[in-house]
Fold each of these.
Amino acid sequence: MRKYNIAVIGVGAVGIEMLRVLYQRKFPIANLTVLARSARNIEVDAKKYSVKTISPGMFDGVDIALFAGTEGEKGAAVTYAKEVVKRGGVVIDNGADFRMDPRVPLVVPEVNAKDVKKHKGIISNPNCSTIQMVVALSPIHKKFGIKRVIATTLQASSGAGRSAVRQLKEEVSLIAQKGQADLNVKAKNRSMPQQLAYNLFPHIGTFAEAGYTNEEWKLVKETHKIMHDNKMSISATTVRVPVRTGHSESIYIETKRPASPDKVRALLSKSAGIIVIDDPKNNLYPMPKDAEGKDEVFVGRIRKDPFNKNGLWLWVVADNLRKGAATNAVQIAECVLLCP
């Protein structure tokens, strides 16, 4: 089997998971280059990596560059993606900079792997909460049609980066030291807009059109693009919760044709990348602590809306750093190089 030259750009939470996933999935690597703004040595699962300072010349000979993703005009992909493409490589970007560019495929392999073939050098990895939602909804949409989605996401601190995880840990420690007499604390290095320990808040991203945050609009626009259906009505609320890793989503759907919970369970149980855990009478349903470190999307609490014959509820959980970011990016790379 041919092997390929791979570059991973960024060694934050997602970049570390990319290195881990490449190794665990036995990706056929000839040479691995790890790049960041500054050189250093890191260790991931007892494997040592020499991180080099990023520069255009570092992309010579690279077949695929996995950008872990800093969004906005200072993002590494905005600065260096053209350098990769100019040298004949393919960019897979985890940031938001290219997601809605009509020339750039936005891909979740279980849903729209064929879109990979349309790339012109850059492929975007969707937002973490979008990825797990479309994995769960795509089989239902193909079988029964979906005309409406109402989603509430419960997103872990790691979705805001390692500094947010540190903030949560520090806040929990401060409250424990106070004996919980006062649940209000102030972390020294706060990266989130509110205290997260013993709390949650409906504010992820920046507030934008119609009072929704840009994170909520991502769920709408990215789902439309991935599923090739702009007519699907989607509305979302995104909530930050005191969980380390693993996003959960409460999703209400209205299908075009009636779909019983049993049929949906059977359908999802046979669908790629999904594990159904749905036995609430025995306290069995997906939870973020059980999804952490896994690549599948977990679905449970599948039930009918008693007031709408075409209404269904689902509870969807996934590791936001893996399937929601690193694993999905590596799966895209596998499609680029290995799929017929």
Amino acid sequence: MLSVRNIVKQYASHRALDDVSLEVERGKIFGLLGPNGAGKTSLIRIITQITAPDSGEVIFNGQQLNANHINRIGYLPEERGLYKKMQIGEQILYLSKLKGLSTAEATKRIKYWFDKLDMGSWWNKKVEDLSKGMQQKVQFVATILHNPELIILDEPFSGFDPVNADLIKNEILELNAQGTTFIFSTHRMESVEELCDNIALIDKSKKILDGAVTDIKSSYRNNTYCIEFTGKVDFSNIDLFEVLEKKDVKSGTNLKFKLIRDYTANDVLAYMIPKVSINHFTEVIPSMNDIFIEHVKK
């Protein structure tokens, strides 16, 4: 759906984006990751046509990105973009009409989303009377109301309590199941693991990692496992694995180990099962948070 090709963006002496390219597949949730100041927001502003690149191009559905595409994209910025003194219902109606909806159709859709997100009594409230999380709900509705093909979310869970964060997460997944494509910019790596199909990691203006989340995590597997067991076993002469950590717990013993040579997890189980009672056995795969920190530290 979206192809970003060799984008460069310079602000005075600061290069915000340095030859960044990435591909966003239709119907996927794409995570745009990076520390503060990495260049994520600069890239989002180019995709939403708030600013233009100094060089490179963006292709949307096979066409050079242009003004006709604005109504096919929804954008939820991290900062609040609402008029504090304006009534919420009138405000979303106004924003919807800017996206090309008629008053009647916009009103119908607003009422549907207000009911769905438990906002039915909010029409006459003012933005300044709402909490940060409630304001984020309003912005979310304004972002999706015109049924965009591509929705860009910049820290969408900012200000939400766990219940409302889960509510919005489920709405994102439901829209995605209906075919909507998402670009999801966040610092919350647990959300990346829950939601994203693919990611790109930007640091210091450059893309330093991209690919499918499952493939990236799989590439960091290093034959490390954890086993919890009840009973006694002597590890002093074992040549199956290297013990990384061993500690006693109420339910037995926790052992973290790394396989050596060409041994497999099955070999370990075959050795352990006759000697002890196994309560738990799992492979230790680095989280996206671990991978993020490792790459950024490099």
